Amino acid sequence: MLQTQINQHVEALIFSSIQSISVQEIILALNAVFDEEIVENQVFESIDYLQEKFSAEDSAIGLVDLNNGYQFLTKKQYHETVNQLQLHRSKKKLSQAAMETLAIIAYRQPITKLEIEQIRGVNSDYSVQRLLEKELISIDGKAETPGRPILYSTSSLFMDYFGLNNLTQLPQLKDIAKEENTVGENAE
């Protein structure tokens, strides 16, 4: 098979994927369709070609490496325009409670619902359920504590949605804490 054909099929796979798609997933899909075996180097060659193709000034989208995979996203200079569309279409926004719950899960995962509720100080059943429905969190097994409560962690969709490759890219709490929220005098 010609590399040009592989490029086109890789582009189609990345374009049609809702989430970032890994090189291994691309290889599996291509090998299921074609008689000859497609190898990793051919896929990486296609990815290099596509990154160059979509890096042109006249292209509004670019190929981005996200969450150990690849995804087409709009370039930064178009984010405000796309954001306006999303604001108008956004009927399924996360509530403040859901955002708080998601932040707790992101920073303390894996975590039980009881631990979330102890941090928030209120019942979090609805927020956890909404986050599961939106696939921003997932069930990550059961804790080894009495009653074996369910453990929750962030999902791949969470990583894609917030543009993260791994959890170390989450903002550190010290970076987002405001000085006005400190207690006592600041000694220099």
Describe this structure in words.
With 188 residues, the protein is an alpha+beta fold. The chain has two domains: 3-79, Arc Repressor Mutant, subunit A (Orthogonal Bundle), CATH 1.10.10; 96-176, Winged helix-like DNA-binding domain superfamily/Winged helix DNA-binding domain (Arc Repressor Mutant, subunit A). It is 48% helix and 13% strand. The chain contains nine helices and five strands; from the N terminus they run αααββααβααββαα. It has helices at 3-16, 23-33, 40-53, 79-89, 96-108, 113-120, 125-133, 156-161, 173-176, and strands spanning 61-66, 69-74, 111-112, 137-142, 150-154. The strands form two sheets. It has a three-stranded antiparallel β-sheet with strand order 3-5-4. Strand 4 (137-142) and strand 5 form a beta hairpin. Helix 1 (3-16) crosses helix 3 (40-53) and helix 5 (96-108) crosses helix 7. The chain is globular. The termini are far apart.
Key attributes of the depicted protein:
188 residues, alpha+beta, Arc Repressor Mutant, subunit A, 2 domains, 3-stranded antiparallel β-sheet, cell division
Summary of the model, kept short:
Keywords: Cell cycle, Cell division, Chromosome partition, Cytoplasm. With about 190 residues, the protein is an alpha+beta fold.
CATH architecture of the largest domain: Orthogonal Bundle
Mean pLDDT across residues: 88
Widest beta sheet: strand line-up: 3-5-4
Strand content: 5-15%
Largest sheet: 3 strands, antiparallel
Counted up, domains total 2
Low-confidence stretches: none
Structural class: alpha+beta
As a whole number of angstroms, the C-alpha radius of gyration is 21 Å
Helix content: 40-55%
- Gross morphology: globular
Number of helices: 9
N-to-C SSE series?
HHHEEHHEHHEEHH
What name does the CATH topology of the largest domain carry?
A: Arc Repressor Mutant, subunit A
